[in-house]
UniProtKB/TrEMBL annotation:
<protein>
    <recommendedName>
        <fullName>FAS1 domain-containing protein</fullName>
    </recommendedName>
</protein>
<dbReference type="GO" id="GO:0098552">
    <property type="term" value="C:side of membrane"/>
</dbReference>
<keyword id="KW-1003">Cell membrane</keyword>
<feature type="domain" description="FAS1">
    <location>
        <begin position="56"/>
        <end position="198"/>
    </location>
</feature>
<dbReference type="InterPro" id="IPR000782">
    <property type="entry name" value="FAS1_domain"/>
</dbReference>
<keyword id="KW-0732">Signal</keyword>
<dbReference type="Pfam" id="PF02469">
    <property type="entry name" value="Fasciclin"/>
</dbReference>
<dbReference type="GO" id="GO:0009834">
    <property type="term" value="P:plant-type secondary cell wall biogenesis"/>
</dbReference>
<comment type="function">
    <text>May be a cell surface adhesion protein.</text>
</comment>
<dbReference type="GO" id="GO:0005886">
    <property type="term" value="C:plasma membrane"/>
</dbReference>
<keyword id="KW-0449">Lipoprotein</keyword>
<keyword id="KW-0472">Membrane</keyword>
<comment type="similarity">
    <text>Belongs to the fasciclin-like AGP family.</text>
</comment>
<keyword id="KW-0325">Glycoprotein</keyword>
<dbReference type="InterPro" id="IPR036378">
    <property type="entry name" value="FAS1_dom_sf"/>
</dbReference>
<keyword id="KW-0336">GPI-anchor</keyword>
<dbReference type="InterPro" id="IPR045003">
    <property type="entry name" value="FLA_A"/>
</dbReference>
Amino acid sequence: MKQQYSISSISVFLLFLHYTNTFAQSPAAAPAQAPAVVVAQPPAATPTQAAAPHGITNVTKILEKAGHFTIFIRLLRSTQEENHLFSALNDSSSGLTIFAPTDSAFSELKSGTLNTLSDGDKSELVKFHVVPTFLSTSQFQTVSNPLGTWAGTGSRLPLNVTSYPNSVNITTGLTNTSLSGTVYTDNQLAIYKIEKVLLPKDIFASKAPAPAPVAPAPEKPTKAVPAANVESPVAPVDISGAVMFTRNNVVGSVGIVAAAIFAL
Ligand SMILES: *[C@@H]1O[C@H](CO)[C@@H](O)[C@H](O)[C@H]1NC(C)=O
Ligand SMILES: *[C@@H]1O[C@H](CO)[C@@H](O)[C@H](O)[C@H]1NC(C)=O
Ligand SMILES: *[C@@H]1O[C@H](CO)[C@@H](O)[C@H](O)[C@H]1NC(C)=O
Ligand SMILES: *[C@@H]1O[C@H](CO)[C@@H](O)[C@H](O)[C@H]1NC(C)=O
Ligand SMILES: *[C@@H]1O[C@H](CO)[C@@H](O)[C@H](O)[C@H]1NC(C)=O
């Protein structure tokens, strides 16, 4: 053990000498101190660390380092979308854009929202936050709406962005928010921070009638009322989508959400 240690110390020292000779730029005081500092690291660490990521950007690691994304990270893991992102970043030439909701964004959801979702819906929710192209902030000015996401396209999955001089706003029809910061960007991957979870109509408006500019239901049905409303003609129509959450409320889930928040 001891011998191995000195051999590696010596080789690191020789390496150090090699570098000082090659570049001839080392500060005058360095030779006495530098080898000790270098030896303090396990010699094998550098090659191993370099090999592990295969040069592929690790989204989870970026989010962990940035902090305040623990719930989003947990969802990425539980839905396996973490692996999907990893292989997409290896394969994709067009890159990715991720809208990452903060923990406080998740805490603003009605209690039980996540827990009442099926595994499929959880995957869809995560995928709805991933756009399969790299978009820099300036590209939001020219992008055409609606954006396609990993969750798909179509009238039940709109995701629109609008660029203003001081903000980039996003709407899903149920959620309005704006980008609140750039977590990460290179020329392949952009991760933007958002303060609200983007709720796709496909999941969260499934039990509500199609949003219509008709405010309260009229006392007696008229020709203007869409056919879809016939079964519950008198019930007030809440187009905000908030009503569904209270219907789906599950007592046990409150504790789980609370636990998730305390875990921060
Ligand atoms: C990405 O980083 C996370 C967190 O540091 C780690 O748990 C995961 O194993 C990494 N994934 C890969 C494929 O290296
Ligand atoms: C990345 O892509 C290359 C070429 O398609 C493939 O050989 C390699 O296994 C991939 N690496 C990972 C970690 O998926
Ligand atoms: C998104 O943009 C498209 C095209 O401009 C528009 O037709 C649609 O109504 C918009 N959806 C929302 C939810 O803003
Ligand atoms: C989102 O913004 C639009 C336009 O400003 C507004 O009409 C709509 O009511 C907002 N929706 C929500 C859910 O806040
Ligand atoms: C953009 O979104 C922010 C909140 O995220 C809101 O305050 C602002 O009014 C929105 N701008 C427009 C033009 O809708």
